[in-house]
Amino acid sequence: MPVIGTREDLSVLRFRKGGSTRYFTAGITASALTNIQIPGHTLFAYPFYCAKDEKFDRIAINVYLADVGNAHLGIYADDGSVAPGRLILDAGEVSVESPTGVKEISMSLELSGGKLYWLAYVCGGIPSLRVVSRNTLIKECLSLDNTLSVDWGTRFERGFTYAALPDPFGTASVNTSPGENCPVFLRKV
Prior knowledge:
CATH topology: Jelly Rolls
Order of helices and strands: EEEEEEEEEEEE
Number of helices: 0
Oligomer: single chain
Shape: globular
Distance between the termini: 26 Å
Strand content: over 45%
CATH class: Mainly Beta
Radius of gyration: 16 Å
């Protein structure tokens, strides 16, 4: 039986099912997917918690409406203050042009259990992407502001001219804008 406050009791995230058709993102549970446009030339980082050691072999986005250009995908380590720090993986680019659908990059990545990571996305264009409903993201780690009236923080972001992912992530702010959700997915081995 898990002991409260230890790594063994941490959440349903311990139970990620692997396989060639299973993708995971920053959400704990997913009730819906939706389509949104995410601004170009902005570097985004979304919280991704690993409760146990896990291996992943794909990183992907799902393009719903195409645009011109490419998107860079990657993963950052947490810097110890619940913010993206050093670059763990710049997986490379995927096209956001036609055809639409899942755009994935093969990789070999093992993430350590009990750690927070950050899924990263930056695009030169503004395609519409399929994303997990905002209400299902891990919001608690970015909290509410001191007025308790602003929406939950859902990600870090900063202006960034499209290029390879920087190392480290750099100075960014927490964003609480409604309607913008994590577009990055990892496939578990």
